[in-house]
Design goal:
Elements lengths: L3 E12 L7 H13 L11 E12 L4 E5 L6 H8 L7 E7 L2 E4 L12 H11 L4 H15 L14 H13 L5 E5 L7 H16 L4 E4 L3 H7 L2 E6 L2 E6 L1 H11 L12 E9 L8 E3 L4 E14 L2 E8 L4 E6 L9 E12 L7 E10 L6 E14 L13 E4 L12 E4 L1
Parallel strand pairs: 3-7, 3-8, 5-6, 6-7, 11-17
Antiparallel strand pairs: 1-2, 1-4, 8-9, 10-12, 12-15, 13-14, 13-16, 16-17, 18-19
Helix pairs in contact: 3-4, 3-5, 4-5
Length: 411
C-alpha cells in the first residue's frame, strides 16, 4: 500500500524562554495548567505560534520542497510529521512506513559503533533484524564508511554521520520519506547519490517532504514547493515560481561603490514578450536591462554583467569593453540591454551582478553585487550549469561508405 501525508489546519504553540524566578510565580502557573484555565487556542504571555493553520497533502510520487527563512517553522513542521512533536491543534495523518532524516545523526547513540547504530536506527524505523542484515552491506557501501563501521559514531565527522543516517533511511524501503537538509553536508559525490536515490524512491511512488536551503535542489528534485514564513504558508505551487517568490523577498546582496557621478537605478530581467520576470527557460530568450542615471557626462564607460549560482559559483562574466561595444558619452537617464537569444543556463537558481566601469574597465563607478536573483527551469536533465547545443551522430563501421546507414539524433 502506498504512503501519503495529510495535514489539516495544523497549529503549533511554543513557549518563549519560560522561566519562574520564584515559588510564588511557579505555583499559579502549574495550577493554571492543571485546571485548564488557559485555552489551547489562546496565547499566554510567553507563548508564540511556530506554525499557523498549515494544510498540506503529499500524494504518492510527489516531492514537496519546504523552503523559507531561518526560524520560519520548517523544521517544526517536519518534527510534527515524524511525531517528535504533537500539534497544538489540527490533524496529521501519515500512512505507511516513514523513513526520516531530520537532523544529522538524529537517533544515533554516540557510544555505539556505526554497525550497532545501523541496527538500532533500522529497528526504530520498523525494520526487522533480518531485513537490516540483508541490506546492511548496501547501506554501508552507500554511506562510504566501511573502514569505520565498527568505530563509535562519536568519532565520526558530521558528514560521515549524515551519510550513514541517510543510507539507513533510504534503504528501509519507506512508504513516506522525510528529509531535512541532508544535502547541506557531505561532498558533491554523496549529494549526487542522495538526489539519485530520492529520485528512485519518487519514481516508485514514495511521497517525499524535503526541507532545504538548497534552492537549486528543490527546483531540480521537487514536483511542488511551499514557502513558509513566520509559521504561515506564503506561497505554494511550481518549485521554480515559489523559489522565485522567496528570493524576491530576501534582502539582496547589494554593494554600491559610492555616490559617484553615475548610478545604476534599476536592473530588469525580461522575457521575450518584454515582461519582467524572475523565471526563465533554458534555450529561450532573456534580456537584462541596466538602467542608469548620469549626473554629469561620463565618457566611454562600460557595463558589466556577472552571473553566479545561488551558492556563489561563478558562471559567466560579460562586459561591453570585451565585446568592443562603445556606449559613447552617457548623460542623464537611460538603459543598456544585454540580449541573450537562447539562454544556455541549465535549471537552477542564479543571481546577477551589474556594474558600470571606467573606460579602462578597472574601476567600478557603481556596482550592485549579486543583487538580482532569477531561476531557470527546463525539461532537460544535463549536468552542470551550462547547456551546450548539440547533436549525436552514429556511423556503423560496416556501412561507413553508405550515407543512408548513418544515424543522427538532433537535440
Amino acid at each position: 500500500m502506498g504512503g501519503g501525508i495529510s495535514l489539516r489546519g495544523v497549529w503549533k504553540k511554543y513557549y518563549r524562554g519560560e522561566r519562574h524566578d520564584s515559588l510564588r510565580d511557579l505555583v499559579p502557573a502549574l495550577a493554571s495548567r492543571m485546571l485548564g484555565r488557559q485555552k489551547r487556542d489562546e496565547l499566554g504571555q510567553k507563548e508564540f505560534w511556530a506554525l499557523r493553520d498549515i494544510s498540506l497533502d503529499v500524494k504518492p510520487g510527489e516531492a514537496v520542497g519546504i523552503i523559507g527563512p531561518n526560524g520560519a517553522g520548517k523544521s517544526t513542521l517536519l518534527k510534527l510529521l515524524t511525531r517528535i512533536l504533537r500539534p497544538t491543534r489540527g490533524e496529521i495523518a501519515i500512512t505507511g512506513r516513514v523513513g526520516a532524516l531530520i537532523e544529522v545523526a538524529a537517533g544515533f547513540h554516540p557510544d555505539l559503533t556505526g554497525r550497532e547504530n545501523v541496527y538500532l536506527q533500522g529497528a526504530v524505523m520498523g525494520m526487522t533484524r533480518a531485513e537490516i542484515s540483508r541490506k546492511f552491506d548496501a547501506i554501508v557501501e552507500f554511506a562510504g564508511v566501511p573502514e569505520f563501521i565498527d568505530t563509535p559514531v562519536k568519532r565520526y565527522s558530521s558528514g560521515m554521520n549524515a551519510r550513514l543516517g541517510f543510507a539507513v533511511a533510504a534503504h528501509m524501503d519507506p512508504d513516506v520519506l522525510l528529509i531535512d537538509e541532508v544535502l547541506s553536508v557531505g561532498d558533491v559525490g554523496f549529494q549526487e547519490k542522495c538526489v539519485t536515490r530520492m529520485r528512485e524512491l519518487i519514481a516508485r511512488g514514495v511521497p517525499l517532504a524535503f526541507v532545504s536551503h538548497n534552492l537549486t535542489a528543490v527546483v531540480d528534485l521537487c514536483t511542488r514547493a511551499i514557502l513558509i514564513d513566520h509559521g504561515e504558508v506564503r506561497a505554494e505551487g511550481n518549485p521554480a515560481q515559489v523559489v522565485g517568490e522567496f528570493r524576491r523577498g530576501r534582502r539582496p546582496e547589494t554593494v554600491v561603490a559610492g555616490d559617484g557621478p553615475i548610478q545604476i537605478t534599476d536592473v530588469r530581467l525580461l522575457q521575450s514578450d518584454g515582461e519582467v520576470s524572475p523565471l526563465f527557460q533554458t534555450g529561450r530568450p532573456m534580456t537584462i536591462q541596466v538602467h542608469y542615471d548620469a549626473r554629469q557626462p561620463i565618457d566611454r564607460p562600460h557595463i558589466a554583467i556577472d552571473i553566479h549560482t545561488a551558492d556563489g559559483t561563478y558562471c559567466s562574466g560579460i562586459n561591453t569593453r570585451m565585446d568592443a561595444c562603445s556606449l559613447g558619452t552617457l548623460d542623464g537617464a537611460g538603459y543598456v540591454e544585454l540580449v541573450t537569444p537562447r539562454l544556455s543556463l541549465l535549471p537552477g537558481c542564479y543571481s546577477i551582478s551589474a556594474g558600470i566601469l571606467d573606460p579602462q574597465g578597472l574601476r567600478p563607478l557603481d556596482l550592485h553585487a549579486r543583487a538580482y536573483p532569477f531561476t531557470v527551469v527546463s525539461t532537460r536533465r544535463d549536468f552542470g550549469f551550462v547547456y551546450l547545443e548539440h547533436e549525436w551522430r552514429h556511423t556503423r563501421a560496416r556501412a561507413a561508405a553508405t550515407a543512408a546507414a548513418d544515424e543522427e539524433c538532433a537535440v
